[in-house]
Amino acid sequence: MSTSELPSSETSQTPAVASPALLLATFIAAIFVSAALLFAVQPMFTKMVLPRLGGAASVWSVAMVFFQTTLLAGYAYAHLLTRFQPGRNSVIIHLVVLVAACFLLPLHIASGWGRPPQDGEAFWLLGLFTVSIGLPFFALSANGPLLQAWFVRTGHKDAKDPYFLYAASNVGSFLALIAYPVAIEPFIPLSDQRWLWTVGYYGLIVLAVACGFLMLRSPNREPEATASDATIEGTTPTWRDTAIWVALAAVPSGLLIAVTAHISTDVAAVPLFWTIPLAIYLLTFVIVFQTKPFIPHWLVVAVQPAFVLFLVIAILMIPIESIVLQIVIHLSVFFVCALMCHGELARRRPPPQFLTGYYMWISFGGMIGGILVGLIAPHVFSRIIEYPLLVVLTLLCRPGFTWPTRGSSQYVVLISIVIAALLVMGMAAVDIRLEAPLYAVVVGFLLGLTVQFWRTPLPFAAIVGMLFILNHYNNYTPSNYLVRNFFGVLNVVEATEGRFRVLYHGTTAQGAQRIRDREGNLLKGRPDMVSEFHDGGGFAQVVEAMERKAGGPINMAVVGLGTGALACRGRDGTTVTYYEIDADIARIATDPTLFSYISECAPKTKIIIGDARLTLADAPDGAYDLLFIDAFIGAAIPIHLLTKEALELYFRKLKPNGVVAMHVSNRNLELVSVVAGIGQSLGAIVRVYDGGDLEEDIDEHRWIPTIAVVARNEADFGVLAKSELWPIRERDPRQRVWTDDYSNVVGALLRHIRSRQSGGGE
Fold first, then answer.
1. For the chain, does the N or the C end have fewer beta carbons within 10 angstroms?
2. Are 401 and 344 spatial neighbours (Cβ–Cβ below 8 Å)?
3. CA distance 486 to 258
4. Is the torsion defined by CA of 51, 53, 57, 61 positive or negative?
């Protein structure tokens, strides 16, 4: 539409009602606030939802799919509004949308969305987000491109190349994400966060009105066909351009979800480990859309292969135990790869008149990447291979990508790698292994080959992909049972020359059973107690002490099923009720061909599926003598099961003299002091056992658990109160008590690191 076709009120050349500086400041403020609200709501609302799905790391992955999809809808709406209803109509329509979203404020989980189903959790979660915050998030998503389009029509001297406003938008997003886990979450309760966010939203409406007023009172010129990149100046984007934009946006978007899931799974699903990767992701947009990026694109292109190779070497050849160092390595590689892809996006940006369409296609690519990784990959791949696959794809996004000609050195390398990959996968299928020296030679040869093809994207990516395949092959173990679901990867394998069967959740062993004796004969009947449930261990001592205090069998509840070994721990007559969120865990534990604890010891054991905070609330008060919380072993932990409010719930479900026992062994976090804090905040006593009288035997799968028992009175501990192995643990006055509104995973991580450095245990 030309200016001559616009209504006279929009084409008049009346002076702007504000100085150029005030006009620019108003638009920047509106875009900044809009972006800050948009990205602050993401961790805030996801944290509100997290407890309903057991604190699973996948909650954030699915949430990101919702955010990216709604962002695309907002960008498409802004694009269509700018194209077909520019000027006054766009202002009126958008203000109506902004005001309509106010009816859903303050933010809350919509009624009728109490408990998730046992299957299809991801789609249930998408529905919950859509109904609860869909309209406010949609309105905010449209603000960025729409306000930039309005700014282009003001005739301001900077309107010819408005992409700097995109950088300003991402600065607001970046600062909001950094501030949330550092300055907001630790100090402001969720209820107050919701009201503060609502106040900010109302303020944004005022700013949007001001921007619309300034645009309508400005010269209202059509955007001119100018751009900073001379190679595309004055040209209309083709479908090939669009496809490239989508691809360059999809790969880093998918990589964002994959690396976030990797970090969250190994530590905890908490806002800190969501916001850091997302903040890095947004920072790359800030950098590349600056008029003069302080990190030149040519430098990023040059160093990216080195960063990727460093990641490969760290995974294949250098075992890194420090979780902090692992996070630093993965995020550094992610930053460089995302910066390279987004740098290519910025280099290929179109003239300003195509601005909203360009943003829409970037958002479409982001949504595609999110859907592929967050929704499709868990159903297509039985193991988590999308992360290394996306790292390889970032190498294909490098400039200079070409298909090799037949007979060229690149062609020979690609064909050779394809044949080698098929050979390795075939060897893995029949369990043929390369000897360690030969494996090292093959890896070394491939690493050396990267030097030859350093600057050629396709063969270099193929070599890196082959190195990842070799790593998978080297760590491959035949499975008795393998399933990937919303909560992670469950893998049942045989270990120690086939004498034990072990259940892994991701990389963490969740339990084991001895299935053969040393001569290789199959064992039958009541299983031996191994893993952390062995005779004399912390679990055994707690159960025996409670049975002795009761003078007979007890009624026990356990949060976290695992292999179901606790069904065999008590004396005859002791009953166990399990609370387990993962239905696949229940299938594994009750399958006697995998684990026979339940089938041999308590075939009528009751297993209740769902998040323990929700399902345990339905249990009658005063029902249990002992409540075991066995959900914190290994990596990611459900924070909401380790809060003051959670302990209050546990106490309500106990008999007057019952106790809560928490298994707080964890390879990354120190949790004993957390239990001491929440226990003493309720006037309870906490005693801790760390296996001081026993030695761990890895070959015999004899693990030493750290157990914290919480009781309301000293007498409730029974014989444990007289044992030197169960000392009272006092609360650390320097540590704030964990609640549903507050938790400090970073502090727990740092305490664990200091403990390991000093040689102490938990």
1. N
2. no
3. 14
4. negative
Q: Which residues contact 226 (CB under 8 A, 6 or more apart)?
A: 160, 161, 233, 234, 351, 352
Binned at pLDDT 50, 70 and 90, residue 592 comes out as: very high
DSSP β-ladder status, 508-514 and 555-559: unpaired
CB 400 within 8 A of CB 453: no
In one letter, which amino acid is 650? Y
Place of tokens 């056992």: 689
Tokens of 523: 């064992």
CB 360 within 8 A of CB 75: yes
Q: Maximum distance among all alpha carbons in the chain?
A: 96
* Residue at 79: amino acid letter: H
Instruction: Provide the H-helix boundaries in 348-408.
Output: 355-371, 377-380, 386-396
Q: For 501, phi and psi rounded to 5 degrees?
A: -115, 130
Structural domains of the chain sorted by starting position, each given as residue range(s) with its CATH number in brackets: 3-7+16-225+238-396 (1.20.1250.20), 409-474 (no CATH), 538-757 (3.40.50.150)
Rounded to an integer, what is the distance from CA 310 to the centroid of its chain? 23
What is this structure's pTM? 0.79
Q: Say whether 315 sits in a helix, a strand or coil.
A: helix
What is the rounded distance in angstroms from the CA atom of residue 643 to the CA atom of residue 627? 15
Which residues have a Cβ under 8 Å from the Cβ of 432 and sit 6 or more positions away?
A: none
Q: CB under 8 Å to 590, separation ≥6 — which residues?
A: 564, 598, 599, 607
Cα angle for residues 209, 133, 182 (degrees, 5° grid) = 85
Q: Identify whether the C-beta of residue 410 lies closer than 8 Å to the C-beta of residue 456.
A: yes
**What is d(CA 104, CA 108) in angstroms, rounded to the nearest whole number?**
8
- Residue whose structure tokens are 């029974």: 718
**CA distances to 403, 419, 420, 450, 462 from 406, in Å:** 9, 16, 19, 20, 17
Residue of 454, 464, 468, 457 lying closest to 396 (CA atoms): 457
Residue 343 is predicted with a pLDDT of 94
Partners of 663 in the β-ladder: 707
**Statement: residue 192 has pLDDT above 80:** yes
Distance CA 412, CA 459 (A): 10
- Specify the 3-state DSSP secondary structure of 492: strand
Q: What whole-number distance in Å separates Cα of residue 565 and Cα of residue 36?
A: 48
Q: How far apart are the first and last CA of the chain?
A: 70
Task: To the nearest 10°, report the CA torsion of 734, 738, 739, 744.
Answer: 100
pLDDT tens across 655-672, in order? 999 999 999 888 778 899
Pairing of β 555-559 and β 624-629: parallel
557 DSSP β-pair partners: 577, 627
Tokens of 357: 């369409």
pLDDT of 746 above 80: no
Structure confidence by residue, pLDDT tens digits, 596-639: 999 999 988 999 998 888 899 999 999 999 999 998 765 567 88
CA atoms within 13 A on the CB side of 693: 10
SS3 at position 586: helix
What's the Cα-to-Cα distance from 405 to each of 395, 400, 402, 464, rounded to whole Å? 19, 15, 9, 21
